[in-house]
Amino acid sequence: MVTETPRWMLPLLEAGQAQKEMFHNEALAQLDLIVQAAAEAIGETVPPTGPVEGQTWIVGPDATGAWAGADNQLAGWSNSGWRFVMPRAGMRVWLVLTKDFAVYDGAEWRVG
User: What are the residues facing 18 on neighbouring strands?
Assistant: First the structure.
């Protein structure tokens, strides 16, 4: 049985499933990171101190702390802590600080 969407791995609801609201809310939180995505910066390897809910970063290589193992992923701060989304080839993210776009080519992010 399929339990998640093929591209973004959003959790799907199943008939008779308990606590459906948790799965639905998780899917909405992930969508909030990827729909018209915007990141504060790209290539950071250390999570910022005091992030604001809704802020997102593109994690750099060899990240540490809460971002360890999340290289190239979008890391978004939520009221539940860090949420991560693995990009797909062709994903485009607006970079807030540099006012430019980053595009994921399937292996790495390219700016400009």
Answer: none
